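WARN no homologs supplied; continuing
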Amino acid sequence: MTLYDRVRDLPVTIHEPRLRRLALQVAPAFARVTTVVELHGGDETGLGEDVTYEGGEAAAFLEGGLPGLAGDWTIHSLSQALGGMDLFGAPPAWEPSRAYRRWAIESAALDLALRQAGAPLWRVLGIEPQPVDFVISTGLGEPPDAARVLDWTHAAPGIGFKVDATPSWTRALTDALAEGARIEVVDLKGHYPGTTVDAGADPRLYAMIAEEFPDAWLEDPRVDARTRVALAGAEDRVTWDAPIHGAADLDDMPIRARTVNMKPSRIGSVEGVLATYDRIRDDGLGAYGGGQYELGPGRGQIQYLASLFHPEAPNDTSPVGYHGPPRAGLPQSPLMPDPAPTGFRWGDAD
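OK structure emitted
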């Protein structure tokens, strides 16, 4: 039996869908806005979170609302219906946003179906939740400043990091990071063409990072003849994130990975997410959770999945408080298991 077989026929009754906005000023130049999807049915409510990054698209979603979803469904029949719907009034600026929105609705439907059934996700899947290791994910700004990481090491001693590299990194910067912090993943940002975070393909940068951080995963390099040379000897530390939209993509990477970044919002459907976890298990691969600066229930859901499938990994699933500037007193890694009594919800996330 596949993981999806355990949930596909769960009935879900939707009476009324609603949307609400969440916002957080993460940095002076980055105001994060997400949209919570609420699916109301009987006395229960299912929650999901649309992590679309374009502010105008989030505003249009909030104003235009959800498609007609009222009725009696199964998880599979609703997913099939959503697969045939255009959830954007106009084409999104970035194609992956279509999957983000679909995941928001499907995760809310899964939450609602489980709550209506009176069961938690972990019990239905037959996997006991475990404590979740997490890292802080951050860029270093431009010009890059190691203080963004080093200040966190004082506020949260022992914490690990997933850091976003840029071509402006210098040897002095990587020396400071290697000496003063535990860098577990370096995101090379090689698969975001046409976006503000595209870091290109810099063999000098790749070689320097592979040398300076010999124990770190190297995420999303752009592989060409020059960067292959730069990564020689470090191929077993290459991981993939942005190119992974489902299980089939694991076969198409230019370097075979031993572990991958699992972002359910990038895959879009409950079926696709669980099929990818099946494939990771069957192929003996590792995984770690990927975050999208979720502000509400979506953050709890990626913590939930990490607790089931890859708890002892550098999960980019830190509590929302870590989105802000360094401060003491936040929950420490690992997070203790905190699934709600029913549904697909972690702790009191709403």
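Residues 97-117 form the longest helix (21 residues).
OK
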